[in-house]
Design goal:
It is a single chain. This protein is of the alpha/beta class and about 240 residues long. The protein has a single domain, classed as Class I glutamine amidotransferase (GATase) domain (Rossmann fold, 3-Layer(aba) Sandwich), CATH 3.40.50.880. It is built from 6 helices and 10 strands. Helix 2 packs across helix 3. The longest helix has 19 residues. The radius of gyration is 16 Å and the shape is globular. The protein starts with a strand and ends with a helix.
Length: about 240
């Protein structure tokens, strides 16, 4: 269950006609980061729905954030059903990390433990299918992104495989025109990484870093923009 919270960009709504992006947030510290800055700049309204509160029955567009939970947890199955309904209704959906795993599960794919804990900065390689993709087509391959996950998923039936890394085969996929699952973290800011490393739920993983925490954090902003703007375009936002 989720509680709806107004995002900063709701102040920019024009005449109540703008579509609002619903953002499912599993932890307060796993927020939109760079994506929020882009949405505010483009005057696209969004609102957070926090885990444990009211869950919306429908939405104009959906972004599903990461978190330390598993997509197999009982507390997240109502969210899986929401995502399934959204996809069936043709609603644009973007999932990050846990969000990508939840989309995969909603599409009938298996979510399970990755062969290794993938945490820190690492290269993401894009497949041939990504070369002409509206979201990933302009990104260099490989691109360096931040990772923090211990689970992965099978590629959903009918989905297009778009990206992989040395530690995780399925880093990104697309289903239909506007449903995207992304295992890595294009939204993350330097401040978010610092914050994540202080969270009690994350402290056990911090030792897995093998390089400076913010080694590539400022570079990520240049990659976050074309990725999110590509999704906004296919989503009609």
């Amino acid at each position: 269950m989720f509680r709806q919270k107004r995002g900063a960009t709701l102040a920019h709504m024009s005449g109540g006609l703008s579509k609002t992006i619903t953002v499912l947030r599993h932890e307060a510290f796993e927020h939109l980061g760079y994506f929020a800055e882009i949405l505010e700049e483009r005057k696209i309204p969004f609102e957070y729905c926090d885990l444990g509160q009211h869950i919306p029955k429908q939405c104009d567009a959906l972004i599903v954030m990461g978190g330390p939970q598993s997509a197999n947890d009982a507390e997240l199955q109502s969210e899986v059903k929401l995502i399934e309904r959204a996809i069936t209704a043709g609603t644009p959906v973007l999932g990050i990390c846990l969000g990508a795993q939840l989309i995969a599960k909603a599409l009938g794919a298996r979510v399970y433990k990755n062969p290794e804990l993938e945490i820190g900065w690492g290269g993401v390689h894009f497949t041939a299918a990504a070369q002409g993709d509206s979201v990933f087509g302009t990104l260099p391959s490989p691109s360096t992104f931040f990772h923090w996950h211990g689970e992965t998923f099978d590629l959903p039936e009918g989905a297009r495989w778009l990206a992989y890394s040395d530690g995780c085969e399925h880093q990104a996929f697309c289903f239909g025109r506007s449903v995207y699952g992304i295992q890595f973290h294009p939204e993350i800011t330097p401040e978010m990484i610092d914050d994540w490393c202080t969270q009690p739920v994350n402290c056990g993983d911090v030792a897995a870093f093998d390089q400076p925490v913010n080694a590539h954090a400022f570079e990520t902003s240049a990659l976050a923009r074309p990725l999110l703007e590509g999704w906004l375009k296919v989503a009609g936002l």
